[in-house]
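Whiteboard transcription, Tuesday session. T.W. wrote the structure tokens on the left side:
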């Protein structure tokens, strides 16, 4: 049994940017502090929601340093460090360690279409290089690669691989991972709308996009479940569905960043090739935020 990184709601944070495209570290620090004050259980930086694909290595390093200073050990700091180039992923992971991250979140290698042995060697190289607890990030809709449960069983033998962020949306696959791995590896839901279903089969929590907007509600969702109030948690999951659905009405993180802008946070635009939402989708998002009394 490996140490659990966190239990409950972790936030895949949005990266605020100025109009010229540079990272706004002051707004980022304020956002992270607000999330922690509202009760979230972990902070995740440099992930998909943070636009890591268009951040330079230096920007990613500075973002981790910023988050570390703000968090000040109040909750775990998990840093994205993934690439389809194994050596680059290892470098990012080592940078994350040097910047003060507690854990690395490393996406599966995309585009290359690695086979099972390649995946195992990829993560073995990264973990040997950075010597940090590592969460494998499985998001086949982005990467074109889905890790099979049998591969997780082999990855779980690596002492540094402690968990998986499962964003395949496949609950049956997660069940099989638990069946094969037992307590050798933790699972976090990578899909807000499946938080309670994943908790019901043994997941430790969620790495949430929606928590950028409703941190208390997403944390409460997890807490209710862990307190044994399963029906209440399920009802809350259903209540939040229209909001979660609106926050994924376009490519993540376009809608959640737009929502933060609507709330007056001024998080700026996404970096290309991500662009502004269509007007009809904006209006729907605004309607949903108003419906929930957020706007």
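and on the right, the sequence the group agreed on:
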């Amino acid at each position: 049994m490996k140490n659990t990184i966190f239990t409950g709601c972790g936030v895949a944070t949005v990266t605020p940017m100025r109009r010229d495209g540079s990272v706004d570290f002051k707004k980022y620090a304020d956002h992270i502090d607000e999330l922690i004050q509202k009760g979230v259980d972990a902070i995740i930086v440099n992930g998909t929601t943070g636009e890591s694909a268009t951040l330079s290595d230096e920007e990613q390093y500075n973002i981790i340093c910023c988050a570390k200073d703000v968090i000040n050990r109040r909750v775990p700091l998990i840093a994205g460090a993934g690439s389809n180039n194994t050596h680059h992923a290892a470098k990012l992971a080592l940078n994350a360690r040097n910047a003060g991250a507690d854990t690395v979140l490393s996406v599966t290698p995309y585009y290359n279409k690695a086979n099972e042995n390649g995946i195992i060697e990829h993560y073995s190289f990264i973990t040997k290089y950075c010597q940090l607890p590592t969460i494998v990030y499985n998001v086949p809709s982005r990467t074109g690669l889905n890790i099979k449960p049998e591969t997780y069983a082999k990855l779980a033998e690596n002492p540094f691989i402690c968990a998986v962020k499962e964003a395949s949306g496949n609950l049956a696959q997660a069940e099989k991972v638990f069946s094969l791995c037992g307590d050798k590896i933790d699972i976090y839901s990578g899909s807000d709308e499946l938080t309670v279903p994943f908790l019901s089969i043994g997941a430790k929590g969620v790495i949430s996009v929606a928590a950028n907007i409703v941190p208390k509600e997403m944390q409460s969702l997890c807490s209710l479940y862990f307190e044994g109030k399963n029906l209440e948690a399920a009802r809350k999951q259903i209540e939040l569905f229209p909001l979660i659905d609106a926050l994924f009405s376009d490519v993540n993180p376009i809608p959640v960043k737009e929502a933060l802008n609507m709330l007056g946070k001024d998080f700026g635009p996404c970096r290309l090739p991500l662009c502004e939402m269509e007007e009809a989708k904006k209006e729907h998002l605004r309607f949903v935020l108003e419906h929930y009394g957020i706007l």
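Someone added at the bottom: Residues 8-227 form a domain with the TIM Barrel fold (CATH 3.20.20.70).
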